[in-house]
Amino acid sequence: MAKTLKIISYNVNGLRAAIKKGFMEWLEAANPDILCLQEIKMEPSQIDMKHFEALGYSDFWFPAQKKGYSGVAIFTKIKPDHVEYGSGDSQSDGEGRIIRIDFGKISLLNVYIPSGTTGDVRQSYKMQWLGEFEKFIKKLLKKHPNLIICGDVNICHQAIDIHNPISNAKSSGFLPEERAWVTKFLGDGFIDTFRHFNKEPHHYSWWTYRMNARARNLGWRIDYFFASKSLEKNLKSAFILPEAKHSDHAPVGIEVKID
Predict the structure, then answer these.
(1) For the chain, is the Cβ count within 10 Å smaller at the N or the C terminus?
(2) Mean pLDDT of 86-96
């Protein structure tokens, strides 16, 4: 029997900090079937898991080796057939950037793409990482053609995805080469699910803490759900939840029908 799943992705910018801001109450109300988190900045032993368990979630973690940095996790009410940690690249895996679960005919990959905002070294690594990720995905698609990729991509794809494209034209996250990478990635067989359903401007998923940016909606859309084109008919909706304020990011999500 077909079922519609709600999947949410959320860069929490530190899960323990988010919990102190009411994250658990929000999670209970939002009630996703699957929750993918980025930038957890912790290990599972650092919090009491009973609250997640009470809500019916199984948890899978891939923290960074460096304490208080990066890391991804998946909480799911759907028992996965398989869980895969990392991509096999030592630097990326050391930073806890990729975790994947497979269920039925669908594979769901949770990713935290590096930021390049701290300078040339990390920007160079970001572009290197994107190239390696593209090869990784092409290989993965051969085995898992029905692929959903969610997470913090750290790139605004088009001018509609950023509040001021002119002044940010040379900013990491909106550089021509980064935007071109997203264009090519989508062209290789993926759907930007939010834009599939919503063509309107002023929808963002991240705001700087400066300049009262969130209240003024001066944001960037850098959090995505990409889905294989084979899943287009399965997609029911895509959304951003800007009212959730446990982080400088907002949760993003999709509803997808599975057999």
Answers:
(1) N
(2) 97
pLDDT 10s digits, 139-155: 999 999 999 999 999 99
Among candidate residues 36, 15, 14, the one with its CA nearest the CA of residue 226: 36
Q: Which residues are catalytic?
A: 152
d(CA 252, CA 206): 11
Q: Show contacts of 40-45: CB within 8 Å, 24+ apart.
A: 40/12, 40/14, 40/15, 40/70, 40/71, 40/72, 40/73, 40/96, 41/13, 41/14, 41/15, 41/16, 41/17, 41/68, 41/69, 41/70, 41/71, 42/14, 42/15, 42/16, 42/68, 42/71, 43/67, 44/73
pLDDT tens figures, 2-22: 899 999 999 999 999 999 999
What DSSP string runs through 221-255?
Answer: --EEEEEEGGGGGGEEEEEE-TT--SSSB--EEEE
The C-alpha atoms of residue 33 and residue 22 are separated, in whole angstroms, by 19
* Total residues belonging to the chain: 259
pLDDT of 136 > 90? The answer is yes
Q: Is residue 1 scored above 80 in pLDDT? A: no
Q: pLDDT confidence of 38, banded at 50, 70, 90? A: very high
DSSP-assigned states of every residue in 83-131: EEE--S-HHHHHTT-EEEEEETTEEEEEEEPPP-TT-HHHHHHHHHHHH
Q: List domains and CATH numbers for the chain.
A: 3-258 (3.60.10.10)
- Global model pTM greater than 0.70: yes
